[in-house]
Amino acid sequence: MNVPNVVLPAAVPRDAKAWLVSPALIFILALFVYPFLYGLVLSFQPMNGGSAFANYIAFFTDTAMWPTIIVTLKLAVPATIINVGLSVPVAFALRRNSPYQKFVTTLLVIPVTLGTVLIADGMLTYFGPNGWFSQAVHGLHFYSDEVRLTHNYWGVLISLIVSGFPFAFLLTLSYVTGIDPTLARAAATLGASPWQQFRQIYLPLLMPGLTMAACLSFVQAFSVFPSAVLLGAPAGPTRVISIAAAEAAFESYDYSLASAIAMVMGFVQLLVVAGMLSARRFFYTGPVTGGKG
Prior knowledge:
Layout lengths: L21 H22 L10 H8 L5 H27 L7 H14 L1 H12 L4 H8 L13 H24 L5 H8 L4 H29 L3 H5 L10 H10 L4 H25 L14
C-alpha cells in the first residue's frame, strides 16, 4: 500500500528585527515596571507589622497626610487649565511661518532647559519681597502693601505655569499645525465667523490633542516637589503629597509607608487622567485627524 507524500508547510522565518526592541523593553522593565511592582508589594508590608493595609489606613486616617491630596489637586488642576488654555491662542498665533515664529517659539521653550530648581531660584530673586517685581510695583504705585509671591500658594502655582507651559505649548502647536487650514477657509466661504470656525472645526479636531496635553500637564504638575519646598510653605498651604512621601521615607525611614503614599499618588493621577480621557468623547466622536495631505 502506497502512502501518499504529505507536504509540510514551510516554516515561517523569524523576523530578526524584532530583537531590536529588546533594549527598550529591558529599559522599561528595569526602570518602570520593576520599581512599580516592588513599591506596590512593599506598601503592603508595614514597618511595624499588622494588617497588610495598615499603611493605607494610616494615610487616610492621619489629618496631616490625606489632606495633601486636596492641596496637590488645588495646585495641579489650575496649573493644567492655565497651561493648556494659554497654549491654544499662542499656538494659533505661531502656527504660520513668519520671521518671528522661530524666535518667539525658542523664547517660550527656554524654561524647559532651566529645570524647576533654577526656575525657583530665579523666582526667589525676581518675586521676593525685595525683588525686581515688587520694587517695580511699588515704584509705579500699583500696590502699596507688601507683594508676596513667594513662600506661599501663588509662588508654587506660578512656577508650575512657567515650567509646564512649554510642554503644553509644543504639544498644542504640533496639533494645530497638523489641521488643514482649507477646512476653515471652506467654512468662511459659507459665512462662518472666526469663532464658529474655531468652535465647530478646530476645537473638535484639537480635542484629542488637547486632552493628551492636559493629561501630561496634570501628571507633571501633580508630582510637584522642588517648587513646593523652595517657593511654597511645605509645612502649611503647599504641603503636597510628594512632601508627605519624602518625609515618610527620609525622616521617619518608613519606606513601606512612603511606598503606600506613592501608590495613592499614582492612583489619584490615574483617576483624573481616566476622567479626562472619558470626557473627551462628549466633545467629538468622529475621526481624530484633520491633517494636511
